């Protein structure tokens, strides 16, 4: 047991348990620990834009074949759309089969509209201008602004262009490529230093949440929470499990390989800043650098599987809870709008509620004020959202790599089976775990 708690994973688990205890026994003190989590996420997020840039650029420049990079990008988008559509459909199906909101008989006029003020404002920003406006936002005002704001998609766009240009230069671009590769290793080493503070970040995050909301808050709207967890579990085991089998690998072995990341995501309800270590682990597993660099960052905005289930499930729940009849046309509209709004959620404060509000704005029949109903349990649902999204993106990377032939299958099986294998340069020391605290 002492050896367990000497490891980072053991320290994170201990911090999680301490956070729950402090939140239950001294809730007022626990709420004041929130700055621990906030400070930790700022330390992690300051590295992400530059790290994504380095990994993507070096991956593309090292690939040499730009046609291959293009194929990976197109196949990734096709995969994202197909899988998220399945997720959206699953949310609709389960909502109608189990009817979690039926019987609540909530009068929308009795709900507190003030609680939705900030979310409605962000929802308007998200949907304003439609798809064209969303695509225009992918282009940064300047290269510097993309890094300054930490917009991963904007950084990714510049990184792809820069990487392609570097590849076209051939030998003349080698010095720059080597410098970027070295810089990425320095950043991973920096991440290793920062990540030693992970237990403090987890302690602050979980203590604040338990202290503010209480363990008993899960009882309210329990059916919706349980159904959502079941939906995510079904999606992961059945849909993602099937995809992994078709790719020639075991989902459960992949989950075991990523157990540290999954543990801290569970504690903090966010998958954002496990991005650096997830990329490192997938590369260590044998997936080509360029594939990891393209699929993972893009997936964080375009492949939110559990998030997609949440949108459709919650929309139908609100309609049922407020006794609002919805037609098949309304259902198809929810499905179509969700395919767009869910893609713009990354980095939006309170993104789950914001995207749901943006979706309901397109369906006047369902009272958007009904979102107040899910606010109290949104954090609990956020745990499953974060875990489902993270697992979905890791499976997507393996699937696209297998589809394109960008994975060393022998090495991947050795890593997943825990067999001896050659250690890559990127893991010069014991693997570290990155964690983020979701901003609310």
What can you tell me about this protein's structure?
The protein is an all-alpha fold. It has a single domain (2-419), classed as Orthogonal Bundle (Proton glutamate symport protein), CATH 1.10.3860.10. It is 72% helix and 0% strand. It contains 23 helices and no strands. The chain has helices at 2-6, 8-25, 27-31, 34-45, 48-63, 66-98, 117-127, 130-136, 143-149, 152-169, 174-194, 198-213, 222-247, 251-257, 259-268, 275-285, 289-302, 305-321, 328-341, 351-361, 372-375, 378-404, 409-417. Helix 6 packs antiparallel against helix 13 and helix 16 (275-285) packs antiparallel against helix 17 (289-302). Residues 216-220 and 424-440 have low confidence and may be disordered.
Task: Fill in the keyword field for this structure.
440 residues, globular, mainly alpha, Proton glutamate symport protein, single chain, disordered C terminus
